[in-house]
Design brief:
The protein is an alpha+beta fold. It folds into 2 domains: 1-72; 76-113, no CATH class. Helix content is 63%, strand content 13%. A two-stranded antiparallel sheet has the order 1-2. β1 (84-90) and β2 form a beta hairpin. The longest helix is centred in the first third of the chain and has 71 residues, at 2-72. The radius of gyration is 35 Å and the shape is rod-shaped. The relative contact order is 0.06. The chain crosses the membrane at residues 38-56. Keywords: Membrane, Transmembrane, Transmembrane helix.
């Protein structure tokens, strides 16, 4: 009976020691996150927003040009006799230089329509 009490006491001490080690590891993990990982994440976020701020004017011009193209497209009709393709020339800044309309209906494709 005494040996059982000693064994239980030893097991309880080992469990208590393991729980203390787990608590210590959790504190170390919190410290590492707070003092190492968090500043790194903040720096990455700052760099990301800085890059987006610098790229925004280019993206804005490109998106604006795309919206203009979409608005200028003629409505697509399946029964068209002469379907057209819109061809655009764009400069490096994303501005429209020239708009060319090409007729895509050729005699050899008449049987397909």
């Amino acid at each position: 009976m005494i040996t059982d009490d000693l064994e239980n006491k030893d097991k309880a001490e080992k469990i208590h020691q393991l729980l203390l080690e787990i608590d210590e590891q959790q504190l170390q993990a919190k410290y590492r996150f707070k003092h190492r990982t968090l500043p790194f994440l903040i720096i990455i976020a700052i760099l990301l927003f800085s890059a987006l701020y610098l790229i925004y004017p280019c993206l804005y011009g490109f998106i604006e040009t795309l919206i203009e193209f979409i608005e200028e497209q003629p409505p697509f009709i399946h029964d068209q006799k002469t379907p057209n393709i819109m061809v655009y020339e764009i400069d490096q800044r994303g501005k429209l230089m020239n708009q060319i309309i090409r007729n895509t209906k050729y005699l050899q494709f008449d049987h397909l329509s």
